[in-house]
Design goal:
The complex is a heterodimer of chains A (294) and B (236). With 294 residues, chain A is mostly helical. Chain A has helices spanning 3-34, 41-59, 63-89, 94-116, 141-163, 165-175, 177-182, 187-209, 221-234, 239-260, 262-279, and strands at 131-134, 137-140. Chain A is built from 11 helices and 2 strands. The termini of chain A are far apart. Chain B has a 6-stranded mixed beta sheet, sandwiched between helices. A 4-stranded antiparallel beta sheet of chain B has the order 2-1-4-5, with helices on one face. In chain B, strand 9 (205-210) and strand 10 form a beta hairpin.
Chain lengths: 294, 236
């Protein structure tokens, strides 16, 4: 394979991985802190896409502008979901929590279906197919933007978790909820902030990919399985692990997709996933036993 | 007036009654111990006082105000602080972060730096291990960290749940010395311990819990002299 082509394929893979990262970082954070598997995660991305679509379709607001309206909106929806569903199911048996978030997922999909029908819609922007050339490698502008935002978000989140008192309180809650409460940490507030920030990131991803991909109520389904694989591969609860795993899966998908066809791409990263789990059951950067509730 | 006053406290887990009609009080600057066999309800009592388990009946009054129904962090803010059984340090945070998180509440945070220095003076070992992950400390060091973290919250009443559990005899004495130092610092202490002989030497008064009910109470001397306590807890 010529060098140019190799670089092109690797770049596309990394950019795709960046998209996954924005979803995966939030999902892994929710699991690590709340011990909740958020099946509704990709639905918040779907709502972000629809938000961007309607603001563009009705008032011609560009997604890169409407992101400042949509993301706070999704954040508020996260607050509502946390208060109405998530906090009420915490402490209940795991099955209950799973059905609760699955219920939110089904509810949001069908709410979107009822409100906006199953039509496939797209946002067209002047830069939707714009490309920058870096040497011989061609890079899609909207992909590059979402990649940069994803990495900036992950870096910012990491700094927040490790450099601020509230971030350390979040880690404390993840490591021992009761002890955190006994230190005067408001555990409910930590849950609320964590959940809402994580789903807002999913909403941000939705807006960022609106110029690239079509919008429809079930669009989340095509991402959620991949993102779950990424989260487990990176290590449940590990932000850095999620980013690395996201980039890895993106590259595998891109390389195998090119060499063997897209049907093989999914199979390939599942094989890598299984192989990693055999050698490291806690995932790439996960901590052994982190999935056990203290 | 008592700093802590509990009356008619009842806690149950489903059908299982863990505490029934428990009444006790702790005066300011007193050291009070709660004795009892395993599963007598000692840990449940402390968890109920901290708000980690709901109570079905009874009242908890701290510093003249009813606090039942308040979430755990509000009780910490008022100065009712617990060092839980099993130490429960944050294993993947370093010693310094563990201590600083102890002063998370608004009231404690205002004096964080001063308290931090005091705690490190009281526990020099923690100063040496400041940057080490808490999970990598020995059992004794983790207990010191848990005590130090509790002090960071600037407790008015410090509840200690089995601080010597699982420690070697030499370390047990060390922990008890620290508790004595905390006490001498005019902190009110409510201590649950299986190490009855040493605890009774430290405490002013004590209560004995049996199957979730109060069986006995009195001054430390009275308890140490009582046949029941001697037989059941002191092995005499």
């Amino acid at each position: 394979m010529p060098l140019d082509l190799t670089l092109q394929i690797l770049t596309s893979g990394l950019l795709l991985g960046g998209l996954y990262a924005l979803l995966a970082v939030g999902l892994t954070l929710i699991f690590g802190v709340l011990r909740v598997v958020n099946f509704a995660h990709a639905e918040f991305m779907m709502l972000g896409m629809f938000g961007a679509y309607w603001l563009w379709a009705l008032w011609g607001i560009d997604p890169y502008l409407s992101i400042f309206i949509v993301v706070p909106g999704v954040f508020l929806l996260g607050v509502l979901t946390d208060r109405l569903v998530i906090q009420r199911s915490i402490g209940a048996p795991e099955v209950t929590v799973v059905f609760a978030t699955l219920g939110v997922s089904i509810f949001l999909q069908n709410a979107a279906l009822t409100a906006w029908s199953a039509d496939i819609r797209s946002v067209t922007t002047p830069y939707g197919s714009a490309v920058v050339e870096l040497g011989s490698v061609r890079i899609s502008v909207p992909m590059l933007v979402s990649f940069v935002v994803a990495l900036a978000f992950a870096t910012g989140l990491w700094l927040f978790l490790n450099r601020t008192m509230f971030g350390k309180a979040i880690q404390a809650v993840a490591q021992n909820r009761d002890a955190a409460a006994l230190m005067g940490i408001d555990v409910g507030r930590v849950y609320l902030v964590t959940y809402s920030v994580a789903v807002a990131a999913a909403g941000a991803m939705g807006v960022l990919i609106a110029p690239l991909f079509s919008v429809y109520p079930r669009v989340g389904l095509s991402y959620i399985v991949t993102v779950f694989v990424i989260v487990v591969l990176g290590g449940l609860g590990s932000v850095v692990g999620a980013v690395i795993a996201a980039l890895l899966v993106g590259v595998i998908e891109s390389v195998v997709g090119f060499l063997l066809g897209t049907a093989w791409a999914e199979l390939a990263y599942f094989l890598v996933f299984l192989a990693v789990l055999v050698v490291r059951p806690q995932g790439l950067l996960g901590r052994r036993g982190a999935e056990v509730y203290q | 007036m008592s700093l802590l006053e509990i009356e008619g406290l009842r806690v149950s887990y489903g059908d299982m009654l863990a505490l029934d009609d428990v009444a006790l009080e702790v005066g300011a600057e007193e050291t009070v111990t709660v004795l009892g066999a395993n599963a007598a309800g000692k840990t449940t009592l402390l968890r109920a006082l901290s708000g980690l388990v709901p109570t079905q009946e009874g009242s908890i009054v701290f510093d003249g105000e009813a606090i039942d129904g308040l979430p755990p962090h509000d009780r910490v803010e008022r100065g009712l602080v617990q060092v839980p059984e099993g130490r429960m340090v944050f294993p993947f945070l370093n010693v310094e972060d563990n201590l600083r998180l102890g002063a998370y509440g608004k009231r404690a945070r205002e004096e964080l730096e001063a308290t931090f220095d005091r705690v490190l003076t009281l526990f020099p070992r923690l100063a040496e291990r400041r940057a080490q992950l808490a999970g990598s400390l020995s059992g004794g060091e983790q207990q010191m960290l848990a005590l130090g973290r509790g002090l960071m919250a600037r407790p008015r009443l410090l509840m200690l749940d089995e601080p010597s559990l699982g420690l070697a005899p030499r370390l047990v004495s060390e922990v008890m010395e620290r508790v004595a130092a905390i006490r001498a610092d005019r902190v009110t202490v409510l201590i649950v311990e299986q190490n009855v002989a040493q605890t009774l030497r430290l405490a002013d008064r004590g209560y004995v819990l049996e199957n979730g009910r109060l069986a006995l109470s009195g001054t430390a001397e009275e308890l140490a002299a009582s046949d029941e306590v001697r037989r059941a807890y002191l092995g005499m």
